[in-house]
Write a structure and sequence with these properties.
Order of helices and strands: EHEHEE
CATH superfamily: Alba-like domain
Number of domains: 1
Oligomer: single chain
Number of helices: 2
Shape: elongated
Largest sheet: 4 strands, mixed
CATH architecture: 2-Layer Sandwich
Structural class: alpha+beta
Strand content: 35-45%
Radius of gyration: 14 Å
Number of strands: 4
CATH topology: Translation Initiation Factor IF3
Distance between the termini: 33 Å
C-alpha cells in the first residue's frame, strides 16, 4: 500500500469544509505547500476550497500553480474513459 503525501488533500464527495479544515490542519503542522487534487466532478469543489482558504481563512495563502490533465480510467463496460484532473498548489510564506 502506497503512503499518502502529508501535504496532499484529495478532494472527493465530502463537504467543502472538511477539505478546508484538512488543509488548515496541514498548514498548522508546518507544511509550507499544500496540494489540492481532484478529478472529474470534484474539480469545482477543489477550486472552491482553494478560494475559501485564500480569501476567508488564511489571508497569506497564495496560489502558486494550477496543473490540469487527463487520467485514463477503466470503464465498467470495458475500455477506458478520460477523466479530467486538477492539482492546485497553495503556498504559505
Amino acid at each position: 500500500m502506497a503512503e499518502m503525501d502529508d501535504n496532499v488533500v484529495y478532494i472527493g464527495k465530502k463537504g467543502i469544509m472538511n477539505y478546508v479544515m484538512a488543509a488548515i490542519t496541514q498548514m498548522n503542522k508546518g507544511e509550507k505547500e499544500i496540494h489540492l487534487k481532484a478529478r472529474g466532478r470534484s474539480i469545482s469543489k477543489a477550486v472552491d476550497v482553494a478560494q475559501l482558504l485564500k480569501n476567508r481563512f488564511e489571508s497569506d495563502v497564495k496560489i502558486k500553480d494550477v496543473e490540469i490533465g487527463t487520467d485514463e480510467v477503466e470503464a465498467d463496460e470495458g475500455g477506458t474513459i478520460n477523466v479530467s484532473t486538477v492539482d492546485i498548489k497553495l503556498v504559505k510564506p
